[in-house]
Predict the 3D structure of the following.
Amino acid sequence: MRTSTTGRVGQYAALLAYLVFLAFPFLWLVSTAFKSPRELGSLHPTWIPRDPTLDNFRQAFDEQPLLRAAGNSLLAASAAAVIAVLIATPLAYVMARHRTRLAKAATGWVVVSQAFPLVLVIIPLFLVLKNLRLINSLAGLVLVYVVWALPFALWMLVGYVRAVPTELEEAAAVDGAGRLRTLVSVTAPLLAPGLVATALFAFITAWNEFFFALVLLKTSDKQTLPVVLTHFIGAEGVADLGPLAAAAFLATLPSLIIFAIIQRRITGGMLAGAVKS
């Protein structure tokens, strides 16, 4: 009993330390966003601002086109999420229902592709988009985001498809429904939670993405929110800390809200494929 209690206390202590490690940057960001310039320059920083102010938020909107950048990010992330799910759904169905060697090889390739670093693929992608005349366009950025989101979307949706009982599809086939009709009328409604979770995950990934947007978008009117945040850092590397923290806080909120909504769905999708029916 004593060993079990000690182990449990150790687990909770480790979990608490991990949560503190994760929460510290965000809490410090929120604190910095509401501090005055004088307090930001203090040699004795505090967790809670002594004189909270909204000047950093007003200055951030005055200095940079945050609304336009947020609109670009919203458009690119939404389009990429919808297209990725539309492409991944039938592919995931085939991979889940037809467990051939080709399907297993495709699943392995999906997992392996996630290990490729961004630097490895950016040059080929840049050359392809240049030939397609999609450099410095949101359409080209959406294309890249779709390609980048597809492997994980497939991985998630395969788990959801495998969790749908095959007996339902067999009953639909007995009633005369074809493969496409079965997918649309029987399987898709049951996959709705998984489709939403996958789309939101793809949205978060595209919303937070920085490297591709930095390389592919040249003019300020096309830049996304993560790229615009770098403009708060001067040529000599000195950051306008208050407005930067305020803008970063606003840019982080959508990701936090969406992830809080879908985190259980993501876990369910990952575990669904591991349950043998």
Observations:
- The radius of gyration is 23 Å.
- The longest helix spans residues 2-33.
- The chain is about 75% helix and 0% strand.
